[in-house]
């Protein structure tokens, strides 16, 4: 089809009408279905590992400027469960074959020449000698005869066993150091007890993964408590350090011990720790000194430092005050300061931890204010993760917290890792987005990483103009496995280089572009006003749609129609949804600052699929489920009810709606819902309180069986790292307000910035595109 005819448009009504919506048909608005990645070229890695925002790269900077949208790639070097499916390539005594100039690893796109004695690097075009023990003759087509037996030559994803030259020290053992808050809040809320139970339940799996696994413990309130766990002891020996200004580590060799050898002493510690602090009235928390002391205990090995915090740190380095009241300031130019760290202690500490291969995971429950903005940098710069359970109670958060912590302790983890992304001449990697520390221009330091973390990579033009019509990207993750092997996970992909902007519009991956823009917008909120962050994202969309409209002169004459490429029809929705997400919506007072920070850091480490689900959750009407919904199809998959639009006008007071955003489930019950349906779903006791994680009862009714099948399937399909707690809310009850943020297509409160409806947003977008042309 001619590109001039290859477009879609949306009728915005006769003149937009009052308020911009008269004459518009909401049924015609673009809305998402199941996200499908644009396939990569043949022999390239699967897009689940490397997913480009646009499947074609511009041949010149001027073409990139016209396109306006960011060129990037969401990289996920590991995926849950793939540690046993990715093939391993084996080389001879000469070691891993790679280009001697640009250091690109051998891959399916290199060209063998001179009868197989040389190969030309696909990234820098340098001819390289083939090692003698890697030599193989070529067939009549110039293809190696052993290509079928060489995964590095027939697959875009492969692993290499690294040799001694890839090690700066012996491979580290898996190491976990637990810093447990034992203040009154942690004990009284049940947080400490739940944490100890999960650790105890995880020890067997941790031990089976590697006999080299090491663990250590530290507890803290107004003082620091260390525990010697040597195998020849029958009970742990506690040592108290009251010095917080310059904490030291007593008996450092006895604190991080082999799990298998010291298992009896570790079990004894876990049995006694809750009883030891059961009657504590100590409200203080020396979190900063605890992290400093844990660093001293771990720095000779590295590993994971898991910090469990129940209140605002009050003593020693890193102590904080409740600065949440600064939201009342009328100076909007300083609103972003509350979303940044209060001082440099945590950033300096995280940089030092990263240098010593220590990854920090933070679990916090403080409410109403935790100052996550200060503490989150510990996770960001060490490649860790941040989990926030405000106002923790076992009934509401216990199952979710237990599953997510156990997954962290038992999942496949890549230790002391570094990641680098290379690209062909003419392009360069100019910036990154995610949780990491940049060790050099393009080397990401990841003390520990796993299949639940993704990174954003920005691509820009180099000083040299691309000279070929195909460019290449290669991501290499060098890491240590639990077994002590040094391994390299390599993903390679080919990308066409085009001279026509029309080809770029055709090649847009709308899901990846929407997720990438949401990442950039969320990160920007940490340094600028919320309104400025939303406008920066909007400006790029306006610029690219304006350029597209100029290309389609015939279509642009259509009255009051928003013109867009078919490949980008969902982009306005993703940008609109991002502006109404927890990370970016409203003003500084409209979302609790800790909830906003947690959402920002969630965006910056989530996969494309997870971000899109957060932007536009799925909503299913359970009261009108088709007969087949909740049953299995011929492939054994549960059939889900049809999706419902996230708009208040689609909500029926006689209905029951299940909302899924990939992080939690919300079941809304209308006040006019048939009582028989409620009884069939919950039994005679009725729906539970909104303060508990609901498990639908097993009842011998059709409604119960099908609803449970739907909920169980959604939970099973969710990220393995998450448990979707189910909250039941009833129309008219105060807890019903939990539903409103999910109805993103509705207009928000009049005094909330950026609270337009979906229809109003489309009209505003059309006006800006048209104004830009004039």
Automatic annotation (TrEMBL):
Q: Does the keyword Metal-binding apply?
A: no
Q: Which residues form the Sec23/Sec24 helical domain?
A: 509-612
> Which GO terms fall under biological process for this protein?
COPII-coated vesicle cargo loading; endoplasmic reticulum organization; ER body organization; Golgi organization; intracellular protein transport; male gamete generation; negative regulation of DNA endoreduplication; regulation of cell size
**Which segments carry the region annotation Disordered?**
11-37
Cellular component, GO annotation: COPII vesicle coat; cytosol; endoplasmic reticulum exit site; endoplasmic reticulum membrane; Golgi membrane
Kindly list the GO molecular function terms attached to this UniProt entry. Answer: SNARE binding; zinc ion binding
Q: Domain (Sec23/Sec24 trunk): give its ranges.
A: 171-408
Give residue ranges for domain Sec23/Sec24 beta-sandwich.
414-498
Q: Main localisation, per the record?
A: endoplasmic reticulum
Kindly list the places in or outside the cell where this protein is found, as annotated in its UniProt entry. Answer: Endoplasmic reticulum membrane; Golgi apparatus membrane
Where does this protein have compositionally biased stretches of type Gly residues? Answer: 13-22
| Keyword list, A-Z | Endoplasmic reticulum, ER-Golgi transport, Golgi apparatus, Membrane, Protein transport, Transport
Q: Which family does it belong to?
A: Belongs to the SEC23/SEC24 family. SEC24 subfamily.
Name-wise, this protein is Uncharacterized protein
Q: Which organism is it from?
A: Ostreococcus lucimarinus (strain CCE9901)
